[in-house]
Design goal:
Length: 148
């Protein structure tokens, strides 16, 4: 009997990352503090870090995309707005659960060791770079040249 691994998708938004995990064979459950009516998989509206602390041990792996406004290049345009900095607390909570984890965020987010991915690496016409830190070794594929 094959067991489908369960992935917890924190700060899930509409589910962009979840689709990839589903295609990789995971049963995905998304957590977000706002309703996500278009999220394509199981969804729980809750505080992501509180849910992780209480239920993280029930999953085989964790993916988190905490809010990125704090590190975004557009931050300089909105200096008057106080954005939450949840990267450190998310990392600490994921480590405490003891399951494999990946945290995704924008270029500029304070990661120690990371890989940087772009849609062009996977044959997509998406030029949005994202960084990924994890609890395990990851390799970065070659990055095709593009103009953006």
């Amino acid at each position: 009997m094959t067991v489908t691994p369960r992935l917890l998708d924190l700060f899930c938004g509409a589910g962009g990352a979840a689709v990839g995990y589903d295609l990789a064979g995971f049963h995905v459950t998304g957590i977000d503090n706002r309703p996500q009516p278009r999220y394509p998989f199981a969804f729980v509206q809750a505080d992501a870090l509180a849910y992780l602390a209480e239920h993280g041990h029930e999953y085989d792996a964790i993916h988190a995309s905490p809010p990125c406004q704090q590190y975004s290049v557009t931050r300089s345009r909105h200096k008057h707005i106080q954005y939450p900095d949840l990267l450190g607390p998310t990392r600490a909570a994921a480590i405490a659960v003891g399951r494999p984890w990946v945290i995704e965020n924008v270029v500029g987010a304070p990661f120690g060791h990371y890989v940087q991915l772009c849609g062009t690496m996977f044959g997509l016409r998406v030029y949005r770079h994202r960084r990924f830190e994890s609890s395990f070794l990851m390799f970065q594929p070659p990055h095709p040249t593009h103009t953006k």
